[in-house]
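Our preliminary data section would be incomplete without showing what the modeling component actually yields. Below, a chain of 225 amino acids is followed by its predicted structure, encoded as tokens that our downstream tools consume directly.
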Amino acid sequence: DLPFQALPPSLDGQSMRVELPNHPPKTYTTALIGQHQAINTAVVLGVMERVKEANFAIPETAIRAGLWNVNWPGRMEIIDQNPTILLDSAHNGESGRWLRENIQKMFPQRPLVLVYGSKPNKDIDSTLSELIPMADYLILTRSVYPATVDPDQLIDFVQHTGFTGPIETIADLAATIERAKQLAGPTGLVCITGSMFIVGEVRTLYGLRPNEAVRVSDTHPTGLD
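Predicted structure:
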């Protein structure tokens, strides 16, 4: 285990201070955004230390380049602006908590439109309980993938959370995105989450390749065709 300190989150990447054996503290930055990525980065750096101990030479420049060039489609991924559209495939309570905390720290945009869909075998109750308190609007949706839950059935889970804001159910993701953008307006935030199938279909609708994430510094798509 490496002692580390996550630095304040940034849309330019997540930085952290790490205490490596026999070295003064160093700062590393990964292109992945969100403070939880500091934990993942610390694990990677710890593994690299063990590899070095096995007499494998790994240049510092290679480690830093790897952290900066990593991409993770569908995890804290911004695919559009005006409004900001954020994708994250959170599907359990813990990942939902990280998503909520990262949004609260990094995305002041309001209103916040939460778009949620899920497979039936995911922890829907815990995920929604973490995410719904931050939402101004809630849209329940589904993917074309047949195993995703019908949005009308998701309302029962929402009732357990005590959410009193506006709720809509839309079974078509393209229509869901357009409605969410309308509710958010140009200055709001649309967070689409709950399942890799939901996130993956949205990325397909935006013409994004499955194996390459949109970086914040990239030119963002202008919207659906």
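The helical segments are 36-53, 60-69, 93-106, 124-131, 151-159, 173-184, 196-205. The chain has a mean pLDDT of 90. Preliminary results of this kind motivate Aim 1 of the renewal.
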